[in-house]
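User: Second chain of the day. Same drill as before.
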Amino acid sequence: MIELNASSEDREQVVSAIGLAVMRWQDATQSYDEAVGAKWGLSSAERHCLGLLHGGPQSAGAVATVTGLTPAAVTALIDRLEARGLLTRTRSLEDRRKVVIEQTELTRQLSARYYGDIAREGEKVIGTFSDTELKTILRFVSAALDLQRDQIARLKAEAPGDP
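Assistant: Same format as last time:
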C-alpha cells in the first residue's frame, strides 16, 4: 500500500501518488494476467477473449473488438479455444449468420481458481470504504476507463509510425 506521510497532504503530491499507484496497479494486473496465461499457454488475445466471456455470451464481432483481431484471426482464436474446451460456439437463434461464443465449465473453474481469491479479497477491501468513498472510487474508475478507451481510439486512428 502507498502511504501518505504528514507532509504529503499537498494536493499535487496526492494526485502524483494516485497516478503512481494506478500505474503500479496496472503493471501488477498485467503481470498476474501474463503469469496465468503462461501457466495455461494462453496468448494475450486469448485471455482477453476469455475475460470478455466472463460477462456472458458474446458475438465473434465483440471478440474482434476487444482483441483488435481481424475476423479471420478471431475465427482461428475461437477454433483454438474451442479445441481446448475453453469456450463453445453456437449459431445465434436470431441471425444464423452470427456466432455466439460462451465460456465452458472448465473456463469458469479456471477463473475461480486464479481470480476467485482476488475477487474475494477485493470485496473485503471495498467493504472498508464508506458509501460516499465508494461513489467517489466508482466515479474515478469510470472516468479512468473512459480516458483509456479514448486514448486507445486515438492511437488506433494514428497512421503507423507517427511520432
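The first strand starts at residue 58 and ends at 59.

User: Great, on to the next one.
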